[in-house]
TrEMBL record:
Predominant location category: other
Name recorded for this polypeptide: p53 apoptosis effector related to PMP-22
Compartment annotation: Cell junction, Desmosome; Cell membrane; Cytoplasm
Family: Belongs to the TMEM47 family.
Amino acid sequence: MATCTLACWRCRWLLPLLLGLAIILGIIALSGRGWLESESAPYEHQASLWETCTRWENDLNWQCQSLMDYSWGRAAAATYLVGFVILVICFALAVIAFSVDILRFNFVRGIGGLLFVVAVFQIICLVIYPVKFTEDIPMRGSNMFSWAYGFGWASTIIVIGCAFFFCCLPNWEDEYSSPERS
């Protein structure tokens, strides 16, 4: 019977690929202008992690204000950026760890621990942003947290899943690669 454990060369790269996907989703969340948008026409409001823009009636131009003027805006951006930088470091460590067999068991649990730290930083940002935004920024009409905010959550969910797998992987590989199973 053919089995595929994460020790095989095909499956070993799934976790680093998932981390790469989380990085791509994080880049979209960091650069996207769709953290908050007006739900229906007339579209009066849109916001990113960095700024909020409003368009008043009969005005074609958006008037933008930096969220970096608010302490919570700086905190949200800083926590997401710190988490993102640690995520990129974890991706590099995962590629190194899965490339060199000797390093795999030394790095894997540490990468899992760092990924939990990434998740905490990202969750802090993703909770601070909507709570403080709705408290401090005057909005009209019906607004919704939109696609870029959703990409931030998607990145966070992938990071949490990868963190569990990185932490449990050494135990799982030990169990399935022991000589008694053969």
